[in-house]
Amino acid sequence: MSEITEYETVIGLEIHVQLQTQTKMFCGCPLEFGAPPNTHTCPVCLGLPGALPVTNAEAIHFGLMMGMALGSELAPRSIFHRKNYFYPDSPKAYQISQYDEPLCLGGQLGDVRIHRVHLEEDAAKLVHIGASGRLHASDASIVDFNRCGTPLAEIVTEPDLRDATVAAEWLRMLRTTLRALGVSDVNMEEGSLRCDANISIRPVGTSELGTKTELKNMNSFRYIERGIRAEVARQTAIVRGGGRVEQETLHFDPRTEAITSLRSKEEAHDYRYFPEPDLTPVAISSEMLDRARAALPELPLARAERFASEHGLNEESAHLLAFRSELGDYFEEAHAGNGVEPQPLANWVANELMPRLGADVDPADSQVAPAALAKLVSMVGAKEVTGAGARQVLDRLVAEGGDPVAIVEAEGLGAVGGADSLAPIVTAALDANPDVAEKLRGGDMKPIGVIVGFVMKETKGRADGKEITRLVREQLGL
Ligand code: ADP
Ligand code: MG
Ligand code: ZN
Question: Rounded distance, CA 211 to CA 215, Å?
Fold first, then answer.
């Protein structure tokens, strides 16, 4: 009986990042998303004869920052090439890009090695207009040259990813890192971050790479995950059916999940790269390196490690707070000087505050002052208020802000704590439920809920469940 071969997925990503510079890559036109079409153009970015490009120093600066953040080797000298092809979105009929001498070589982010990072210019934006005014049946196409010549960095990974979900997660980590660097607004919907996924499969246990296909231009994390999954299923079905995967460039339609071919290997362009004669090589000076280094913020991975080592946060919390930098900032402000235990504070930020605010809200913009949350969490730790009581206080803080101590007092939410006040109530509960007390005494702890319920009712939920259990054991001599 023959065994069914299992396949593993191999994925490498190519990510285009639109850099948030003041001006375009090789001319002085401003970058402004959403500006009226064709208002930011000049002879250089329109590709008029005789116009001369000049490399944008800020784009190089951002490229160096990215290279440093990714641990790349920074090329002391890199050059631009012309990548020749004809398409209506490219008026020069070539794109200026880096080819064999990119700005950054190698590197790593998390578990994924970086192959290279290079700089290039974006093409114009084509909008296809049908008779219905809808955006696909192409009765007419119009071109917006505002995007033409805007700076892009292309980040190419090694084929180190093995799973669609992990690929999407890794891309999130890259996006957060780029946002922390401030080199791009990394807005996927507006196309500031676009991802091509290269995908192949191979029998588990083998190391040779299979033939890859390339899924083009996916602009959401969900589509990337679903697109890769659909393509892996397609390739697996081909191979299991005795066929061979063909190298081609594909489009994934997120509405129908259909994968269609854009072009096969035979139709691949020969770009006839040659060095751009109008640009001088980019030579990196030590001043440029110093300036890029000085501009580097603490990066999310380093921050997660610091949260773990400095505050003893568990991995999940450290990661969440480091990769959602606004949560990390809020946490650090709440923690500083307020003497609150870091892990409970992190838990309250993640599990209580954020769900109340909504996932996309920056807690700094909320009514809950960081010091107020710190105080509330400290009060829970000191058993001055129960978890349930504190959650009510937090509801109030979220709605109208304020001071947790005052709210606890005003609402009478203070924990009936301390053995002194709680012990007589526990005694009363045991007296009122002799049969339950008997079972507990005999070692059957199941009905303890009856006692806890009694005490909670008496204290209007302001007692600590653990403390009740402790007192029950104490009073029954268990
Ligand atoms: P191409 O010359 O077709 O552009 P590259 O070697 O430049 O291919 O690789 C482009 C991207 O594809 C990189 O991210 C790389 O990691 C990935 N890649 C290369 N080979 C494979 C493969 N067999 N399976 C999956 N990804 C791959
Ligand atoms: Mg390539
Ligand atoms: Zn221009």
Answer: 13
Residue type, 422: L
* Per-residue pLDDT tens over the stretch 150-209: 999 999 999 999 999 999 999 999 999 999 999 999 999 889 999 999 999 999 999 999
Cβ proximity of 259 and 250 under 8 Å: yes
Residues with Cβ within 8 Å of residue 322, at least 6 apart in sequence: 300, 301, 303, 304, 306, 307, 328
Ligand 1 atom with the shortest distance to the CA of 159 = 16
Q: Which domain holds residue 438?
A: 419-476
Q: Are residues 376 and 459 in the same domain?
A: no
Q: Which ligand is nearest to the CA of 155?
A: 1
Q: Where are the beta strands (DSSP E) in 241-396?
A: 248-252, 259-264, 274-275, 282-283
Q: Is 400 left (phi over 0), alpha (psi -120 to 50) or beta?
A: alpha
Is-contact 167 159, C-beta < 8 A? no
On whether both 72 and 28 belong to a single domain, the answer is yes
The distance of Cα 422 from the centroid of its chain, to the nearest Å, equals: 47
Digit-coded pLDDT (tens) for 334-364: 999 888 999 999 999 999 999 999 877 889 9
3-class secondary-structure state, position 282:
strand
Does a structural domain hold residue 369? yes
42 pLDDT tier (thresholds 50, 70, 90):
very high
Q: Is the distance from CB of 193 to CB of 168 less than 8 angstroms?
A: no
Ligand nearest to the CA of 210: 1
In a domain, 359, yes or no: yes
Shared domain for 399 and 425, answered yes or no, is no
**Quick one: how far is CA 318 from the chain centroid?**
14
Which residues sit with their C-beta closer than 6 Å to ligand 1?
10-14, 115, 156-159, 198-200, 209-210, 212
Question: Are 155 and 242 in the same domain?
Answer: yes
Could you tell me where the beta strands, DSSP code E, fall in 219-289? Answer: 248-252, 259-264, 274-275, 282-283
Q: Show which of 294, 310, 333 is a domain's final residue.
A: 294
* DSSP element (H, E) containing 396: helix 387-400
